[in-house]
Amino acid sequence: MDQKLFRIGEMADLNHISTQTLRLYDKNKLLEPKYLDPETGYRYYTLDQCAKLDLIHALKSCRLSLEKIREIFELSSEELLLQALEEQAGRLADEIYSLSMSRSNLNRIQRNLQVLQSLPPFGQVFFEYIPERKIDVQHTEFDFFAQGYTGYENMLRHMQNYLHENHLPPSYFVNVGTMMEREHFIKGTYKAQAAFIFVDELYPHTDSIRTLPPNMYMSVVSDNTSLEIGYARKLYEEMEQNGMAPCGDYICEVLTQFPLRDSRQLIYKIQVPVRRIRNGICKGEQENRPEDFVRKGKW
Hints:
Elements: E1 5-7, H1 8-14, H2 19-27, E2 35-36, E3 43-46, H3 50-61, H4 66-75, H5 78-116, E4 126-130, E5 133-139, H6 144-165, E6 177-180, H7 182-187, E7 194-199, E8 209-212, E9 215-222, H8 228-241, E10 244-246, E11 250-257, E12 266-278, E13 281-282, H9 290-295
């Protein structure tokens, strides 16, 4: 033969792969040896076969299956290759999108767990500045304040059904919170019939997405849902004593809900956006900034 022949081990070393890989390619009819010694059974390859081997690895790096690669080789069609790559690009884009959402939610859960380490004691009111957030809100027939834990579980099912029926990413179904309208909080007619999830730029657009603007919040944390009404009253009393008023809806954000036993172990944070009152009117239309509170000794 004119061309130099390489034994399977030499071909493997030349291309930084294993002999098992070359045998697999042979078995799947992707790259058969150029010559098979009938007496010894030794496989021999030629240098020009490295080009096809390079193409196999390139297509594998695109996560095309060996079966699809063999189909492309058998038909020897550049058109089929282009079509296969376009279809695979779409599949990879979907997978990347899904993984990005999963990573985003992982980071959110991670941040919540880290926040737990720096929170004040349960039941202690504190101020905090919270940047802009986006939430997807669903109104339900259930009322947390009237039905307690059972109402919350029903609200979770409502939110889960909403995501499923509208083909929205289920990975966002984590730490579902509840909302109460500002008017109910002020009047003390506690009613929370809205559930929400936090969303980001990866989440599909829906008509029920709301933006929570950046603002100073008065907050309190607890692990006992039966105490929420008492803490809601405590927050409002603290606002009055500090010359402030709520300037947005009451948010109950669930920080953790790990059911290590039979029921959920909730740690939640009640938070209400606040502004200062001047002559009985909330000061300004812009959000309060942290430095406003520091200067006045409120934080």
